[in-house]
Amino acid sequence: MESTKAPRADLLDPAAIAALGRLEVVARWVVDGFMAGLHRSPRKGFSVEFAEYRPYQPGDDPRYIDWKIAARADRWVVRQYEEETNLRATIVLDVSRSMAWKGSASRLTKLEYSDRLAAALTLLLLRQRDAVGIVRFDSRVRSAVPPRASRGQWRRVIGALEEPGAGLASAAGEGLRQAARLVRRRGLVLLITDLLLDREEIEDPLRALRAAGHDVTVLHVLDPAERDFTAGDAIYHDPESGIEVPAAPHVRDAYRETLGAVTAEWREAFGRLGVGYEIVDTGMPFALPLRRAFAARERLY
Amino acid sequence: MSFLAPLWMLLAGAAAVPLLLHLLRRRSRVRAEFPAARYLARAEREHSRSLRLRNLLLMLLRVGILLLLAFAAARPAARWSGWTGGRSPVALAVVVDNSLSTSVVENGQPVLASLRDTAQSILAGAGELDRVWIVTADGRVQGGSIASARTALAAIRPLAGAGDIGGAVRVAAVTASGAGGLPPRVVVLTDGQRTAWPSRVEVPGGVEYMVVAPGSAAPPNRGVVAATPRPAWWTPRGILTIAVHAEDTVAFRGALLEGSVPRTVARGSVVPGVPQSIRVAPTDTGWIAGHVEIDPDEMPGDDTRYFAVWVGEAPRVMVTAGAGPFVRSAVDVMKEEGRVAEGTGIRLMGAHEVEGSGPVFLTAPAHPSQVGAANQALARRGIPWRLGDARPPGRLSEAALGGAEVRQRFALVATSAAPIDTVASVDGEPWAIAGTTAAGRFVLVASALVPEATALPVRAGFVPWLSATLLARLAGGRGDVLNVSPGAVMRMPPWADSLLVEGEEARAIGDAEFVAPAAPGVHFFSRDGRRVGALVVNVEESESVLARMDGSEVAGLLGDRQVRLAHDEPRWRDALFAGRGTRSLVVPALMAALVLLTLELAATSIRARGVA
């Protein structure tokens, strides 16, 4: 097996890699890099009924390499089997106004980061022959792509991600309910949001999803500037909620304490519902949230 | 409390700045988008009490810092009991008279030891904020702090000579006055030796002086005050004249250091005030050191006196008619005394007679009509001087010549650039000069040595002067003896190029000033590697006279300055540090501001922990 010296895109700075290409291109680079980093996965779309051969890709399980062909033709192919237990995953993406914010010009907005993360997740799941759909919401459900594993699903999801959003509210409950309607079978629901919303609004829909047997994971997107309040003396306002707060640097410690309490409350609330909860920092490479989301998929098998 | 610069208190108005900032903080006009503003609001809500307290604390700290800085800038002063025991600090220079006279043993210990004890007790009364120096009689200043002053005091040793106690007082006054505005005070600890305070000492004003002198009668002392070889060059025998300071007859011993071993050459007793001359016959030749000593007494520093003398064969001389009858008579006397011998080594003649080579002693012609012939003869000989116009009468300047009158003399005019070595002068003008040409050494006198031209030939000093001139200037450059006191500042004589100090390497000093060795003794000058003279270091004669003044007499010599006298120790020590004055609060204020600044930095840098 040849090794590559090129840097893995999933480990690069998100803003740097995003500047190099369009959404789907970046998603491919990220997924390629991520797959190259996976060493072994028990079920990556391989079943017991043989379907076809395909060229070996880094990350494929060596057990499925056809060594006879490798010996005869001096090339590596893997045996592909019909998937019998396809996963159905739905990504629920918050595209409200609060997501279109970044604390530094050198970073991606939370929405830009989430778009690329959603695209990469979609491609990753599709490559696993999983069915993937997406629901985007702000003050209402903006777009909904039902989960499919077909070849054209990738283009549909990308098309949906490129639609406008940024409404001045977060109808997360409606988005989750839409996801429940799209996913009839037991599957995976990934909610990507900055959680600047009321807890009561999403608790019932999440409870319903869990009751339907879905595995739900919430990826809490935070800009580094939101995690570590470093701004100066000013009046801070949230365009989505209209809240205005005068603050000075000396509240930093109190703010961090409060944020710590808020995330703890979310973690505790989601824990009670059996919902996974991960904090995603827009300054971190895509590999970290991908790994956490992929871990959620693994739990279903 | 008082302020030296009260206008700086206006700076306290700056304290309003953090106050206003604190009050106006919530009126910031800057708006910034921050989606997580709800968390900020919650933080303000949940931590409002602690935030308010912290803001208030920060504001108070900042206001306090500015107030303290303004306070310090106004240079406050207050009366309070601090490190100086409730008094204001002073700049104190303690002059410790460590001249040789203070080495005399009195009441079982040297006077210097009791002066040092007094100084120690003064230092014991000083506070941390006082600045203290120790100044010794040689003008050396040490200290600055109490610890360094104590160290300097412990290291004080008696000088080998008189030093300059008046100069030391002046140095002390200048030192104390330059101590950053502290009240300057000078304490003079002296034995009050009368000869050490010969006249009024001009000291700076604005300084408070205090004199501590024992005022007791000085103990008796004996010392050798003179050991003088006569003449300065022995050919080969000479006379050693000895004088002592004592109350009764004193036994002495004179010795010459021939080779490396002192050889006793004279022994006897001498009556105080009556110098005794002893003929001495050395066995060695060249420059020889010697000393005269008496039995040790309470002040051994003046019990030995050193001298140096050149010993050698008498030079041979020949006198012509042109030199005049008085020169011939003087040479005859010198021959009888063995200082010169008949021969052709040195010729003494009129300037118009000079010819040939070899050392010559030339006198100007008695009549102006012979001046032209004399100048032609000088030019033929290669002497770069000629006789010029007649000069007005005057008197010889050299003390040894007794101010003898010169009635007829000619100007000495240089015909080319040549170094001038003046042997004698009249009213500041060269009268007798010496030099060297290719034909040999010469001495040229601007007058005829006859009574019509000058009274010198009929003076007692004529024969010794002529003898010394012949030996020093014409008989091979034997140099001279310089007698100095210990530590004197002096210049290298023109006839030497280096000084060989006993126990040291030869020092090539050049034209620069140098300090004579601090210890009595004999050291030799050399030129081109051979001895050409001697530097004799001896205690000043006056230092043997221990008669004392009391404190009031010493104080009177310090002029009209503010001088206190110390009669009983507790009183004068209280007076020294008297004046329960104010002390500056600048440093405490700045320290307090620094503490508040540290607290402010700590308050702003504390961070919460446990953030996810």
How many domains make up the 3D coordinates of chain B?
A: 4
Rounded to an integer, what's the Rg of chain B over CA atoms? 38 Å
Strand order of the largest sheet of chain A: 5-4-3-6-7-10
Terminal residue distance of chain B: 55 Å
Strand order of the largest sheet of chain B: 20-19-21-22-29-28-27
Mean pLDDT of chain A: 76
Oligomer: heterodimer
Report helical residue fraction of chain B: 25-40%
What does this structure look like?
The complex is a heterodimer of chains A (301) and B (612). Chain A is an alpha/beta fold. Chain A has helices spanning 14-18, 23-37, 67-73, 110-127, 153-161, 172-182, 199-211, 224-227, 252-273, 287-298; strands spanning 49-55, 77-82, 88-94, 131-137, 141-148, 188-193, 215-222, 234-237, 244-247, 276-281. Chain A has a six-stranded mixed β-sheet, sandwiched between helices. In chain A, strands 1-2 form a two-stranded antiparallel sheet. In chain A, helix 2 (23-37) crosses helix 4 (110-127), helix 4 (110-127) packs antiparallel against helix 5 (153-161) and helix 7 runs parallel beside helix 9 (252-273). The two termini of chain B are 55 Å apart. Mean pLDDT of chain B is 84; it is low at 607-612. Chain B has four domains: 2-79 and 586-605, no CATH class; 91-218 and 549-581, 3-Layer(aba) Sandwich (Rossmann fold); 223-313 and 480-542, Immunoglobulin-like, CATH 2.60.40; 316-474, Class I glutamine amidotransferase (GATase) domain (Rossmann fold), CATH 3.40.50.880. Chain B has 612 residues and is an alpha/beta fold. Classes of the chains: A alpha/beta (301), B alpha/beta (612). The A-B interface holds A 97-99, 101, 194, 196, 226-229, 231-241, 243-248, 250-260, 262-264, 279 and B 25-44, 46-47, 50-51, 54-55, 58, 604, 606-608, 610-612. Strand 8 (234-237) of chain A pairs parallel with strand 2 of chain B, so a sheet runs across the interface.
